[in-house]
């Protein structure tokens, strides 16, 4: 059982998770006790990653607050790597605002209100030309969302969030702040991977747990 499914054992809140589970195949020999124990170990080893996963897939507000604190702490530690030393007043509030936006973007799923692409969140659309040629329905990747199922977000919102507390030009935003924001998003992805690896590693090392889920 993958981590994103395991977190719903107590209280499956997300329609996105329910949809994933409906597509899951194979048998899992993980008992509820095994899952809870594995989650406890993962929380100890990868707190940020597990909080991010809860925030993303179950929309848990407590987990989101924990994830935001971790992300804001990371943001302050890397700020000097990207931002000019003479950034001026308001820069720390701007950094915090970008962390909030990065977490919001990371947590978007197809069941987030208003986040679905025109493809309905499926990430694919009917290829009419190929369907006519072959005489059967043919699907292709949605060109709008590139398969994510989500409406693409522009970085304009990030620039505007900074302008509220820290005046910068578009050129300054593109040169310094945009790469900084990319790093925040990448950090979220890394933490999720670390949590997944921690959870799976515990299950594989536990002789009383057998895992045959094909997901």
Shape: flat
Helix % is 55-70%
What structural class do the secondary elements suggest?
Answer: mainly alpha
> How much of the sequence is in beta strands?
under 5%
Overall mean pLDDT score?
Answer: 82
CATH class: Mainly Alpha
Task: Summarize the structure in short.
The chain has 215 residues and is mostly helical.
Provide a descriptive summary of the structure in words.
The chain has 215 residues and is an all-alpha fold. It has one domain (3-108, 153-205): Enzyme I, Chain A, domain 2 (Orthogonal Bundle). Helices cover 59% and strands 3% of the residues. It has 9 helices and 2 strands, in the order H-H-H-H-H-H-E-H-E-H-H. It has helices at residues 3-6, 15-23, 32-45, 47-57, 61-82, 91-106, 128-134, 156-163, 170-205; strands at 124-126, 139-141. Strands 1-2 form a two-stranded antiparallel sheet. Helix 3 (32-45) crosses helix 4 (47-57), helix 5 (61-82) packs across helix 6 (91-106) and helix 6 runs antiparallel to helix 8 (156-163). It is flat, with a radius of gyration of 20 Å.
